[in-house]
Amino acid sequence: MRVVSAWPVWLIGVLLLVAAGFAATFVPRWRAGARDRAVAWSGARAAIDVATISRDAAAGRVVEADELLARAEAITAGRGGENAAREAARCAREADRLWREAAGA
User: Fold this and answer.
1) Closest by alpha carbon to 104, among 54, 40, 49?
2) pTM of the predicted structure, to 2 decimals
3) Region for 61 from its dihedrals, namely left if φ exceeds 0, alpha if ψ lies in -120 to 50, beta otherwise
């Protein structure tokens, strides 16, 4: 009668346990990061849309606001992470503020 060693079974079991532990910690963090990026980019696009409306409603041209909006749109075109989205939103909000001030709102 041939005796089969048990160590390969234990090795496979340990590897599966380690993989399950890794997945249990990595997957929720990955999903949260993806959600945070999506929220940040959504906010940036909304800020750009608001700034565009303020630009169209402004009576005159505000050079600094035009440059800020162009920068926000360029950052958006390049995509990136949350920091890029925050910077794009900041530029767009500042441009919106400048156009509102120029319009007297």
Assistant:
1) 54
2) 0.74
3) beta
